[in-house]
Please model this.
Amino acid sequence: MSSPKSLPTLRARGAPLASPDAQRALLRSLPIAREFEDALGGPLRATRIDVMQINVGKLCNQTCRHCHVDAGPDRREVMSRETMQLCLDALARTDIPTVDITGGAPELTPHFRWLVEQVRALGRHVIDRCNLTILETPTHRDLPEFFAENRVEVVCSLPHYARLSTDRQRGDGVHERSIRALRRLNEVGYGDGRSGLRLVLVTNPVGAFLPGAQASLETEWKREMKQRHGVSFDALYTITNMPISRYLEWLESSGNLQRYLDALVAAFNPAAARGVMCRSTISIGWDGTLYDCDFNQMLEMPVHASAPRHVRDFDRGLLEARTIELDRHCFGCTAGAGSSCGGATT
Amino acid sequence: MHRPHYYDEHDLGRFGEVGENAPELSKKFFEWYGAVFADGALSAREKSLIALAVAHAVQCPYCIDAYSKDALEKGSDLDQMTEAVHVAAAIRGGASLVHGVQMRNKANGISM
Model:
């Protein structure tokens, strides 16, 4: 196992894999048993839109080694207030129940809090995908109270309940700061099972292997997080690492790429394929472009041309009738028990 | 057929071939094997750590490969896995040392 060291973003290093085209070309250059479309047995169609996922930008205070966004402190792509308003306008024209805000560290985007308040004013449920350490920065220490006031569901990344794996993936000291942040979320009522303030932890493998069984891990995590750290939470999601961006670079440089892709292909699960999140989600990029999911967004694969491709032209009917754009990375969501922003799909 | 070494990591993927001449026995083994590792009174993760330790005790390279990966997938980290290997090593070492009592019994029995 290589040393626990975070590198700058692919973009900052001028790495070839900073290019989405280069990422897709690398995946396409590998021999695999069958293509994703063949495994599915036909096109994949959207069903409905239950979740509007807004990626408000690539700016982040961390540079995690597996990040599919290539997010980091050097990234400057953040959603403007005007584009946020377009998202709100589209939301107001529909009854989409949930807005899932992600990044980067979404809280670093200048108008993040305004966006949350406006979505709540429309009566919709808000999820914030939080890296936890942002809550420990001087300018964001009041976020637990802000989240609680706005009944925001907080979905937090934590690779492991023990320090070693967390710091290997996310950087030295991240585990300790993450635990402190979780305790502060607990202090304002998150994760107590009674307040309705839902706190979810997300674990993804620290290496070239698939995640374990979600239900089994959740039982153990709840016990260990309580005993070791005095932290309570509501649910654990297991998420498979997608072979794109910085994780793709690590797979290739560590000699694990072919084996990992083979493992994803071999573990294709038709039941997981039926439940993939892209069928019930629309993903909006920092510039307002529409995608099937956050992974397609990072590969710059917008929604099918039969549907509007910018949030200003949001048409729920056309979007719900769209065909999903696919490529080899999609095997990441259909392996084993399946993987989505909501954890396992089976 | 010339093979350059006894152990080939790809042979692990051919484990099922051991049943070709005894399919019924093989079927029983793999069904039982799968049941053994399911969540029960012990979690699947704990069982995987035990398997990893036993793999080191019986020094099976296939098992070490398989259960190093399996232990990570089941949610163990390298600290926990290393402690499991030390458990195996302690039992192996202790098993040798405790036979020292037998040695002493024998030696004392035949000594003046």
Remarks:
- The first strand of chain A starts at residue 51 and ends at 55.
